[in-house]
Each structure stands twice: as C-alpha cells, then as structure tokens.
Design goal:
Distance between the termini: 11 Å
Structural class: alpha/beta
Bound molecules: phosphoric acid mono(formamide)ester, norvaline
CATH architecture of the largest domain: 3-Layer(aba) Sandwich
Radius of gyration: 19 Å
Largest sheet: 5 strands, parallel
Number of helices: 12
Order of helices and strands: HEHEHEHEHEHEHEHEHHEHH
Number of domains: 2
CATH topology of the largest domain: Rossmann fold
Helix content: 40-55%
C-alpha cells in the first residue's frame, strides 16, 4: 500500500514521469454501470502512461450473448495488459480474475469499491501526514460497497475506522466487519460499527459519506431507505462535533440536501475535489505497478 500511495504522490507531482511505461500497450475498461470519475480517471491515467485505454460498455461484448466469463477473460488477456471492470456482482469480477492471465482491477461492484479508497487515503495522508495515531476516521450512511471499502482500507492502514450506519438491512456485511477486525488486529488499527451518528462524529478527523441510493438499488425501497439514512446525513451540526482540523470527504457523485448539506460539501472543510483529483494519480500508480508485476501476491 505504501508503494502505491508513494508512487501516486509522485504522479501527482509529475504526471508524465513514466510516460512510456505502457507504450504500444492497451488496457481494457469494461463497465456495466455508469461512471464519471472512475472511467475518465482510468482513461487519462492509461494515456499518461503512454498506453491506449479500450472502453467497453456492458452491452458491447459477446458476454451479453452467452459467451462465458472465463472465455472472455482468456480473450481479453491476449490483447491487453490489464482489465479494469465495474459491474454489479462481485462474483463476476472474481471469476474474471480467476481466468484472466492479466491483472483485473475492481472499479466498483455492489460489494466493494477498492480503487476509491486509494484516492481517499492519499488525500487523507496529504491532509494529516503519516502519523494518524489518536485520529478517528468516520463513514456515515449506507452499509454498502463504500462502507465495506472504508472499513477494510482503514484497517489495512492501521487507522481507528468507524462505520456509522442504520441497523438491519443497511448495516455493513457482517463478514466484511469480521475481516476488517482481523486485519486491524494485525495492523494496530481499530474497527467500530456504531448506530449513533453523533457518537460517531464526536472528535472525528474525517466525516465521509456516500449516496443513499446506489447504482442498482431498487427504487421501491427509496422511501424506507431515506427514513433510515436521514439521521446519518452530514450536516453542519454533525461537523461541529468533530475536531477543529477535521475534513469532509465524499466519493461523489453527491446529492446536496440528502446525504450531505450543501454548506458542508461546498464549505471550507470539504476536500472532495482533491479527493476526486487523486482518482487519476492512484489508478495511474495501480496500473503502473500491476503491469510491471510489482504487486504479485497482493489481493483486492
Ligand atoms: N466515485 C466514483 O466512483 O465515481 P464514478 O461513479 O463517477 O466513477
Ligand atoms: N455506493 C455508490 C458509489 C458510487 C461511487 C454506488 O455504488 O452507486
């Protein structure tokens, strides 16, 4: 992780420092869900490395006409140096990964959003430095893919990481919580699941949130979900409970007036634009190291 973040910081300082690393090579980006940041940052990251991004929409492969995931993985592996994929089912990404002979990067599933967290932690590091002892990093809202990624990455980074979510069906997956605890025991981190947004926000260094309705969520549940998530909206009142040097973060897209007050996301404590900027530097770092084979044996 240190290598990925350090190289991303170097790409931030000089985006073209490895501008021939992918010369004459291509990277496939396959997405069955919409994307603004992940798609554009990935395409530009690959261009900065001298490569060609090949963007493929969900309905453009023979996969949609019955070709197997395994065969698709074998074929893409023959043409491209890596595959970036955004789709619904985590099992599809795992299956592609199992049959591909090139690195497969999870660019969001219903279950996880790991590349977002690389950008988030580079931004956190810029803000607070490497010494995060005594600091609390809080996610508020839906116990969804973002909450899972937040807990796992926070645990890897040895942070005191919190998910403040409703109980019941919008709480994080219990297995993810267990894995995060296991990682934190090794890293010296601490994982907390809280259902009281005020207790979560108290003395926090970061308040982080995500949309209430994720891609693929059923609109039939919207009303019930909004009621359950409303207490977890990041308001000026919640921000007032945090440390004086605290910041607000959001993976974006944002819905002002729902999960965050406009005065918070557009206010002085918000670092969401720098966070979004680092989507490119971190994907550039990830692709660079994966294609070089520097990360063999790593997971996620
Ligand atoms: N944060 C994020 O993944 O944004 P996109 O959905 O626009 O890619
Ligand atoms: N939870 C959101 C994240 C968007 C970046 C979704 O899956 O739609």
């Amino acid at each position: 992780m240190e290598l990925l973040l350090d190289t991303a910081a170097a790409f931030a300082a000089n985006p073209l420092r490895s501008s021939t690393a992918l010369a004459h090579q291509s990277v496939a980006i396959y997405m069955t869900k919409p994307s603004t940041r992940t798609r554009l940052s990935s395409e530009s990251a690959i261009a900065h490395l001298g490569g060609t991004p090949i963007f493929i929409r969900g309905d453009e492969l023979q996969l949609g006409r019955g070709e197997s995931i395994a065969d698709t993985a074998r074929i893409i592996s023959q043409y491209c140096k890596a595959l970036i994929i955004r789709t619904y089912d985590q099992a599809d990404v795992d299956e592609l990964g199992a049959h591909a002979t090139i690195p497969v990067i999870n660019a969001l599933t219903d279950f996880d959003h790991p590349t977002q967290l690389l950008a988030d932690w580079l931004t956190i590091r810029e803000q607070f430095g490497k010494d995060i002892s005594g600091r609390k990093f809080v996610y508020l809202g839906d116990g969804n893919n973002m909450s899972h990624a937040w807990l796992i990455m926070g645990a890897i980074m040895g942070a005191h990481v919190v998910a403040a979510t409703p109980t019941g069906k919008w709480a994080p997956d219990p297995h993810v919580i267990e894995v995060a605890h296991t990682i934190a025991r090794q890293s010296g981190g601490r994982v907390e699941i809280i259902h009281d947004p005020h207790a979560a926000a108290k003395d926090a260094s970061v308040l982080y949130t995500d949309v209430w309705m994720s891609m693929g969520d059923s609109q039939d549940e919207r009303e019930e979900k909004v009621v359950a998530l409303s207490p977890f909206a990041v308001t000026e009142d919640l921000m007032a409970l945090t440390q004086s040097d605290s910041v607000f973060m959001h993976c974006l897209p944002a819905h002002r007036g729902e999960e965050v007050e406009a005065t918070v996301i557009d206010g002085t404590k918000s670092i969401v634009w720098r966070e979004a900027y680092h989507r490119r530097t971190t994907i550039q770092s990830l692709v660079y190291h994966l294609v070089r084979g520097d990360l063999k044996g790593s997971s996620h």
